[in-house]
Amino acid sequence: MFIFIAASAVLVWSLGWRAKHSGLPPWRTVATTVTATVVWFVLSGALPDLGSEPKITIGDRGTRPGGGFTHSISNAFQRAQLEMLQARAQQLGPSGAFAEFSCGDSVPDFRFELTLEPAGEYNERLIDVGYTPRLEIGGADRCLSFGLSYLFDTTLAEIDHGPPVDYGYVNPSTGEKLGPYIRGPLRKPICRCDLRHSGREWVAWSQQAAEALR
Prior knowledge:
The protein is α+β, with helices and mostly antiparallel strands. 36% of the residues lie in helices and 13% in strands.
């Protein structure tokens, strides 16, 4: 913003100076330049960035309170893959995939809204997953919420076959280039349903850790 204002001021002064030394009314040139600059500034904020990737949203999670999470994706993930992920997500409930994370409770009828977010100045290229109804992440729905994220992880891995994106990350201490982030093996949450209402942690990510919970 500062650069834009400074450049505009220099342009206005330069054109006004030239108009004055050319025998033209400088105020008219200055007024025209200022008007054009203001109009361009207003319109540039309303126009889409030419050549930039559009944000894509599909699905409708409704108006009920819900939750959400994000997953990074490759450049190969496009609208077709987004639609495939949405279709697979809506079949998670009917397929019984949530059963091992629900401790025998009935599973909510989830609705999903997926948004493909282009890479920006402060975010990687990612999928924003919104869902309803809301889950009690810190209580009785804790394992189900982790299970939901895990199922999206595994489904996304089956759909997104592109290589990880190199965003140019560097080690802040050494300046060494880190290369693209490579996700490790997916870990399935294990529910200790007997500890569900104990007030203590009851979700683990390995059998050994699950057995150690008391």
